[in-house]
């Protein structure tokens, strides 16, 4: 039950992060300050300040202490899948 709550929370945050990417034209590479191919907690909270360490850790599926592009995309996809239709961004 707690994992489901955490995943819903991550999904909601992923939707917000997706909007931030779109608004600021921020790319994964520009956030990856050390160019290691993953976003650290410090790097991702630049555009996702409400992300908690617990949520970050839950999204880090390979336990590498960083989120890969695939892990970030998975959170954003989960957000899009769980978002109510009226919360979808306008196109």
UniProtKB/TrEMBL annotation:
Domain of life: Bacteria
InterPro entries listed in its UniProt record: EF_Hand_1_Ca_BS (IPR018247)
Keywords carried by this UniProt record: Signal
Signal peptide (UniProt feature, chain positions): 1-22
Annotated protein name in UniProt: EF-hand domain-containing protein
Organism, scientific name: Devosia nitrariae
